[in-house]
Amino acid sequence: MNKFSKRLVASLVAGVMTISLSGCGKEAKNTADNAANESGIIRIASKSDLTSLDPHKMNDVASAPAVRSIYETLIKLNPETNEFEPYLAESYEYVEGSDKDIRFKLHEGVKFHNGNPLTSEDVKFSLDRQRDSGNVGHLVAIIDDVEVIDDLTFIIHLKEPTSTIFSSLSHMGCSILDKEYVEKMDAEGKSLDEAPIGTGPFVFDSWTLGSEWSLKKNQDYWNDKFEAQSEGLTCKVIPEETSRTVALQANEIDLLLNVPNVDIQNIKKDENIDLVEYESTALEFLGLNCSKEPFNNKALREAVAYCINRDDIIQVQFDGQAVPCYTCIGPAAIGYTDDVEKREYNIEKAKEKLQEAGMANGFSFTISTVGDVRARACQVIQAACKEAGIDVQIEMLEKSAYYDKIGNGDHEAAYTGWNANAEPDNTYRPLFSSETAGKGGSNTACFKSEEIDKLIDEGSKLIDNDAKVKKYEEVAKVVARECAVIPTCSEKGYIAKSKNVDGMGISSIQMHDFFGLHIVK
Question: What is the pTM for the complete model shown?
Answer without folding.
Answer: 0.70
